[in-house]
Amino acid sequence: MGVIQFYREGGWAMHLLLVSALIGLFFMFERIIFLFFKTRPDPIDYVEKLTKDIKSKKGKDGVDSALKKSRSDSFPIAKISSAILEKASYGKDEMEEARDMEALKTLSFLDRGMLVLAAVANIAPLIGFLGTVVGMMMAFEAIAKAGTVEPTIVADGIRVALITTAAGLMIAFPVSAFHVWFSSRINSLSRKFEEATSILVETVLEQEIEE
């Protein structure tokens, strides 16, 4: 059975499943691009370069040099680092507040689309089961009209039921797997951003810069 025939024999429920599959594919590709390419470079590696610069030049000169470097970059960690360094002379609380505010804005893309992927993973099997119910109703209706139970009479209804169930599960399995993978990546990134920015704050405090 070809894909087109598979789609046609599944009935109207296949249209809903196709829309679910396309939405799932869109957000899976979007998440791969943003979570694995837009978050480069590694936050800890980037901050380590800044802290080396700060320590080598020492004091306000080191912080100003690191601030100039972070302002020239457009990475998420560069924007957060820049927000911290701009408050270097105001103390730990001000730097952490600036970090939290910038992180809230800059890292808002991390969990974007995750609810949609979770919804697709949950709804696709339900659409498949709805197709199953419709297929079984078709089978019983055919039996009622014929007045007898013959395999050829109920075959169409059972075919619809099995096709839609299979299609719903085929969509749900990969989407669920990618959702788990992306969630793990988001948790890992969040920990790295938190660790990296804490290192930067502590390094700046060691320079004892005063307003």
Cα distance, first to last residue? 75 Å
Q: Could you state the order of secondary-structure elements as H and E?
A: HHHHHHHH
What is Rg?
Answer: 27 Å
Shape: rod-shaped
Weakly predicted, low-confidence segments: none
Protein architecture, described:
This protein is mainly α. Helix content is 83%, strand content 0%. It contains eight helices and no strands. The protein has helices spanning 3-9, 13-36, 43-57, 59-72, 76-86, 92-106, 114-146, 151-206. It is rod-shaped and about 90 Å long. The model has no long low-confidence stretch (mean pLDDT 90).
Explain briefly what this protein structure is.
The protein is mostly helical and 211 residues long. The protein contains eight helices and no strands. The protein is rod-shaped and about 90 Å long.
